[in-house]
Amino acid sequence: MSESTLLGATEIRALAESLSAKPTKKLGQNFVIDPNTVRRIVAQAHVSSEDVVVEIGPGLGSLTLALLPNVAKVLAVEIDPVLSTALPATISKHAPNLKENLIVINADAMRIDELPINPTHLVANLPYNVSVPVVLHFLETFPSLKEILVMVQAEVADRMAAGPGSKIYGVPSVKMAWYGDVTKAGSVGRNVFWPAPNVDSGLVRLVRKDREFDPQLRELTFAIVDAAFGQRRKTLRTALGSVLGSPQTVESILQDTGIDSGLRGEQLSLKDFVAIAKQAKKVT
Ligand code: SAM
After folding, report:
1. Domain 9-208, CATH number (from 3.40.710.10, 3.30.70.2660, 3.40.830.10, 3.40.50.150)
2. pLDDT under 70: residue ranges of the chain
3. Which partner from 171, 212, 248, 281 sits 20 to 30 angstroms from 30, CA to CA?
């Protein structure tokens, strides 16, 4: 069987030093230095030897090395040119039989709109400053993605998986729910990273189950969600004016949908938001 050796703290530090790479906050560079953590992520990712995994931000290769023996291909999208250039050599050294299964793409993941092969899975220790937009961008751009397992800031993991009525329920919760069933898949402490971040992390899984395949409906639903939560304290009657029109139009759309215009965004489920968008499409 083709195998890889995983990177620990000593290897990660030595590798960064040999590249004169200083981890930057701006790019969310906190590298995993604990082989057990990357093994755990791969075990949770539900991948098999047929799968094509896109990894956003492979960094020095910790997670990439754990993924490669378990999947058909890894498409690694890294923004930092020093790290993306160094990655093939790291893989050749630690997983020589698997280097052909890696495709490195030096790019900003937020701007990727095609990949050489359609990915089945997204598995990543995400740069925390762009974790929500990057996941949404990939779900929108690559319908072939059937499952996602990402490590994000613990608070973001909670938000992504939150349901209506809870304090942390918001835009990420509803938009993620559009694409599938979202669940938390574990917590991760700070000491598995170098440098250690000042927040805890969490794993989040999304199993794709597009509720609707209509991109226009998605856009309108997302605009309504943004407006509803953009003015969190306001009732739907006031908050939705910017997307749906005059107070009378908002009132009549909500009435026809059977939703009380005195409610606030945080009280609505994805289904409610979609119902409002469908009704708005009918009348506009
Ligand atoms: N996967 C590695 C690990 O687990 O050790 C590194 C994870 S580190 C939290 C995030 C990585 O994402 C860094 O390598 C960083 O350079 C990269 N990155 C940051 N912003 C990015 C973007 N917009 N597109 C692609 N990669 C990005």
Report:
1. 3.40.50.150
2. 1, 211, 284
3. 171
Verify whether ligand 1 is closer than 6 Å to residue 15 (CB atom): no
Q: What's the count of helices (H) and strands (E) in the chain, helices before strands?
A: 12, 9
Backbone angles phi, psi at 91, to 5 degrees: -70, -40
Positive or negative, the CA dihedral 93, 98, 103, 108 is negative
Position 283 scores a pLDDT of 81
Task: Name the residue of 40, 68, 78 to mutate for ligand 1: max ligand atoms within 8 A of Cβ.
Answer: 78
CB-ligand 1 contact for 28 (6 Å cutoff): yes
Q: Give the pLDDT of residue 22.
A: 94
Q: Is the CB of 203 under 6 A from ligand 1?
A: no
Q: State residue 263's pLDDT score.
A: 96
> Cα–chain-centroid distance for residue 187?
16
Q: Please say whether the dihedral angle defined by the alpha carbons of residues 103, 108, 109 and 115, taken in this order, is positive or negative.
A: negative
Q: 230 C-alpha vs ligand 1 centroid, how far in Å? A: 29
Q: Does any ligand 1 atom lie closer than 6 A to the CB of residue 125?
A: yes
Domain boundaries, the chain: 9-208, 215-283
What is the per-residue pLDDT for 233?
A: 81
Q: pTM (2 decimals)?
A: 0.96
Task: Identify the pLDDT of residue 261.
Answer: 95
pLDDT for residue 36: 97
